[in-house]
Specification:
This protein has 277 residues and is mostly beta strands. It contains two helices and 24 strands. 42% of the residues are buried.
Amino acid sequence: MEVRYTYNPDYYKKLNTEELRKNFLVDSMFRPGELTLIYTDVDRSIIGSAVPVDNVLDLKGSKKETASEYFLDRREAGIINIGNTGTVAVDGINYVLQNKDCLYIGKEAKEIKFSSDDKSNPASFYISSYPAHKEYPVKLIKYEDAVKQSLGSFENCNKRVINKYILPGKVESCQLVMGLTELESGSVWNTFPPHTHQRRTEIYLYFDMKEDSMVFHFMGEEYETRHIVIRNKQAVISPGFSIHSGVGTSNYSFIWGMGGENQVFDDMDSLNLENIR
């Protein structure tokens, strides 16, 4: 398990392009036949991926990073499949996830296994996990059953649909809130106007991108922003002080996962666009 440490806002301003990418960009996931995990001290979140091919992949605990016998000993997780059909087995019960389906797994689930229906076209499971204090039941949320919200306009190049999977009133959790946003053809801006939310962190996974396309992800404080160039199936960590907004060379999708003090989706600190630098 890779471990990341973040910087305070003042030190963040001194980072060059390579240092920004090293600390906030995650470009090591979705390797065929492997399960990859990245631990960050931002709200003690863990993200990762599982791409089972010939073998079943086990999500196990870590004696060092989490000091737990099994991964969800004191954590909860949300899993979204961005590949072809696959199965997540939780303590012997199989849950079939098709493309863009989501699975919530609560605290104290002991055995989690990933497999693909077709090894030549494997599933690609994205994992988002936060510490948990209470056990909630496992729940499968189909893509078509997500809470859908349309935002933006074609005139502003940000027409998009937000699919909300894990949130209060839909799927109960300790602190994890998770969903998936899809930009329509001709739209390239996400999360605009930008905002921050000091009460929780957010991690984006960008996907469904064309091979030759990219996203310029903006981050940092409103008066001194930076950007990271992101390619398909790469993630970016956003601390509470940072904006998180991006523009691509074509439309794309992204998964957002949040954890922290507040689970209310609209708990945001809106920014005055005149202050963006």
